Amino acid sequence: MGTALESTAFKATYAVKEPFVYAAIVEDPATKEILYRVIEPTLTPEDKLVLEKIKHIMLQELEVDVTELNEEKAPKIIEAETRRIIKEYKIKVTEETLNKIFYYLTRDLLGYERLDPLMQDHMIEDISCDGARIPIYIWHREWESIPTNVMYDDPETLNRAVVRLAYKCGRHISIGNPILDGSLPDGSRVNATYGTEISKKGATFTIRRFRADPLTIVDLIALKTVSPDLAAFLWYAIENKSSVLIAGGVASGKTTLLNCISMFIRPDLKLVSIEETPELNIPHINWIPMTTRQGFGKKEADITLFDLLKNALRQRPDYIIVGEVRGKEAYTLFQALATGHGVQATIHGDNPQSVIKRLESEPMNVPRPLIGLIDLIVMQNRLRLGDKPVRRTVDVTEVGGYDPDSNKLVMNQLAKWNPQDDSFIIKTESLLLKKIAEKKGITVEEAMADIKKRKVIFKWLESKGMRRYKEIGAMMREFYADPERIYRKAMVESL
Predict the structure, then answer these.
(1) Mean pLDDT across the chain, nearest whole number?
(2) How far is residue 119's CA from residue 107's CA, in Å, rounded to a whole number?
(3) What is the mean pLDDT of residues 415-441?
(4) What is the mean pLDDT of residues 301-310?
(5) Could you tell me which residue ranges the Bacterial type II secretion system protein E domain spans (predicted)?
(6) Which pLDDT score, from 0 to 100, does residue 7 have?
(7) How far apart, in Å, do the first and last CA atoms of the chain sit?
(8) What is the pTM (predicted TM-score) of this model?
(9) Which of 33, 248, 297, 331 could form a disulfide with 380 if both were Cys (CB 3.0 to 4.6 A apart)?
(10) Does 300 have pLDDT greater than 90?
């Protein structure tokens, strides 16, 4: 991997793993292409020979499998073994070079070798390798899809990397079994192919990163994905067990918003989440996260979304959260809605009408009366403002039920995004708010007052820099224990 950055314009730089790894976002002056550059310690040809010699001796003599040790012990053992080898074999090396060697040994023996800097970067969502001698592409949280300066030089090296990924997933991949679908120890999902059995370009892999510190609603307000008013409305709706479908295109922020609004669910309720790729990270204690699984060699051993949903219903959850609805599980999900379960899910669609059409069509086949049980359809979109990609909640439509006489759904567009000034227009009349007010025995005006209190709390959280999901989770628990106390605290500390 080269680190030469001559004749390039820096857009951004940041530390990935100080003091060894940095990332640079650069622009090629000739093509204007945005590129991601990994910057690692530079080794001289002599340093590289020393590194390979120490690594070879260590692999021959080390009696402990460092990959089986915890994150604290393994690096210490590698450092101790390195110092022993240097002393025993009389290898001459400076302290500066030794620190670099420690880094590369730890990276290669414990991490993901040349892929490790990308796995360490919290700004990267996806990592995609299309074959040998092709730059690895990433999906960056700010710069979206961009190529990197990381690549595998030959098919053999790439095949070994894929086998290593399979090992870390606790799975096997080979010519006889050339497809891998598994999870890494950190929860990231891997899909890989081996050799040329599947792809003519050779081995490939895609890694969907699991975010340990997910974005929260405070982040989305700061990013202007949603407005404080809209966020407060969603909080009030979900607090009152409203069901929500979040729709949009690829990478529009559907799952991010789903994770954010799931934190609004009362902490005493039981949640079950169902996903193909583990992306949700919810601070509720009474939460059962479930993911699909590819069978070990047999199709019958596959565990699908449909299987998980049937299993979830037997666990009597208050809320069912589905990462993405796209198959026959949709009918079962809406049946759960009809029996009183709260539902949150994402689905692909361009607008509320296309979402409804998709639900009614194969393979979902959800009857229109059941669709009428959903409360909100929230539309997400990815677009560009200036030269930066942004995500916006562009439409919130209420579903007020099903009218059997006209065979139509009662729908009301509650909010829409205005591209002229990047603002949100929210109607004053809400079918859902009226429904909640009637159920609670209060007026719509009183419900609106409650929503305004939640807006004050959001502004307080933002002013205090409280954005981490555990902080939001703790605040939610305090709020539901004593709403007025948290509101008063927000009012006083916001002055």
Answers:
(1) 93
(2) 11
(3) 94
(4) 90
(5) 136-361
(6) 57
(7) 52
(8) 0.85
(9) 248
(10) no
What is residue 187's predicted lDDT score, i.e. its pLDDT?
86
Closest CA relative to residue 349, chosen from 330, 369, 321: 330
Mean pLDDT, residues 451-459: 97
Beta strands 144-147 and 388-403: pairing type?
unpaired
User: Over the stretch 101-122, which tens digit does the pLDDT of each residue have?
Assistant: 999 999 999 999 999 999 999 9
Report whether the peptide linkage leading into residue 19 is cis, meaning its omega lies within 30 degrees of zero: yes
Which residues make beta-bridge pairs with 360?
none
Residue 428 binned pLDDT confidence (cut-offs 50, 70, 90): confident
d(CA 183, CA 147): 24
Q: For the chain, give the secondary structure using H, E and C.
A: CCCCCCCCEEEEEEEEECCCEEEEEEECCCCCCEEEEEECCCCCHHHHHHHHHHHHHHHHHCCCCHHHCCCCHHHHHHHHHHHHHHHHCCCCCCHHHHHHHHHHHHHHHHCCHHHHHHHHCCCEEEEEECCCCCCCEEEECCCEEEEECCCCCCHHHHHHHHHHHHHHCCCCCCCCCCEEEEECCCCCEEEEECCCCCCCCCCEEEEECCCCCCCCHHHHHHCCCCCHHHHHHHHHHHHCCCCEEEEECCCCCHHHHHHHHHCCCCCCCCEEEEECCCCCCCCCCCEEEEECECCCCCHHHCECHHHHHHHHHCCCCCEEEECCCCCCHHHHHHHHHHCCCEEEEEEECCCHHHHHHHHHCCCCCCCHHHHCCCCEEEEEEEEEECCEEEEEEEEEEEEEEEECCCCEEEEEEEEEEECCCCEEEECCCCHHHHHHHHHHCCCHHHHHHHHHHHHHHHHHHHHHCCCCHHHHHHHHHHHHHCHHHHHHHHHHHHC
Give the residue among 469, 399, 487 at the shortest CA–CA distance from 220: 469
Segment 27-41 mean pLDDT: 93
Q: What are phi and psi of 293, to 5 degrees?
A: -145, 140
Residue 127 amino acid letter: I
* Gap between the Cα atoms of 272 and 439, Å rounded: 25
* 138 within 8 A of 128, measured Cβ to Cβ: yes
The distance of Cα 249 from the centroid of its chain, to the nearest Å, equals 15
Give pLDDT tens digits for 115-143: 999 999 999 999 999 999 999 999 998 89
How many Cβ atoms from other residues are within 10 Å of residue 365's Cβ? Answer: 11
